[in-house]
Amino acid sequence: MVDSITGGRGSRAPHHRSWHSEEHTSHRAPRLRAAVLGANDGLLSTSSLLLGVVAASASREVLFATGVAALVSGAGSMAMGEYSSVSSQRDAEAADLAMEAEALAAHPRAELRELTENLKVNGVPDHLAVEVAEALTAHDALAAHAQLELGIQPDDLADPLEAAVASAISFALGAMVPILVVMTLAGDARAPGLVVSALVGLGALGAFGARLGGANMLRAAVRVLLGGAAAMTIAWLVGNLFNVSV
Ligand SMILES: [Zn+2]
Fold first, then answer.
1. 116, 120, 160, 163: which has the fewest C-beta neighbours closer than 10 Å?
2. Distance between Cα 61 and ligand 1 center (Å)
3. Residue ranges in the chain whose pLDDT is less than 70
4. CA of 35 to the centre of ligand 1 (A)
C-alpha cells in the first residue's frame, strides 16, 4: 500500500515529497499555457483559412478537405517547433547540470560556501545557513544547487516528446471547432458561424491563459479578440479577391 502511494519514490523522506509536489504545480503552469497557445493557434489559423475559402464560395467537400489539411499540417508544424524548442532548452539545462556537477566535484568547499550564501539571500538566517547548506549537500548536493542556483528540478526536466504531442493535440482540438462549424452549417451561415465561434473560443482561451499567468483576464481576452478579428478580416478580404464558384 505504502509502495503505491510513494509511486517508486519510496526512498525519499516524507518532507521531500511534499516539497516536490509543491514545486510541481508551478511546473505545470507553463505546460498548460503552451497547450492554451496551441489551441489558440489551431482555432484562429483554421478559422481564418476556412473563412477565406468560404468567401471564395467553395463546396462542402473542399471546405472539409481544406480544414483537415490545415489541422494536420498545423499540428505537425506545432509538434516540430515545440520538439526542437524544448529539446534545446533541455540541452541547455543538461549542460548547466553537468557544469554544476563538475564544479561540485572539483571545488566542494567553494560550492558549499556558494550554497550557504544562496540560502542567506533566500532568507535563511546566517546562523542556520551553514547547517542547512551542509545538510542539503549531504542529502543531494546537485539537486540543491540545481534548484537554488538554476531553478531546475534535475529529475523533472521538460520532455520534448511530451511537449510536442501536447501542442499537436491542443492545436488539433482548436482546429476541430471551425471544421465542425463549416460541416454543420450551410451556405450563408458558415461565415458568421466561423467568426462567432472563433471569437468566443479566442476570448475564452485568452481569459484562461491570462488566469494561468496571473494577468488581467479582460485585457488579455480583448487583445486576443482584436488580433483574431484582424486576422479573420484579412482572410475574408483575400478570399473575396479569389471569389470563384467551385
Ligand atoms: Zn553551485
1. 120
2. 61
3. 1-30, 244-246
4. 33
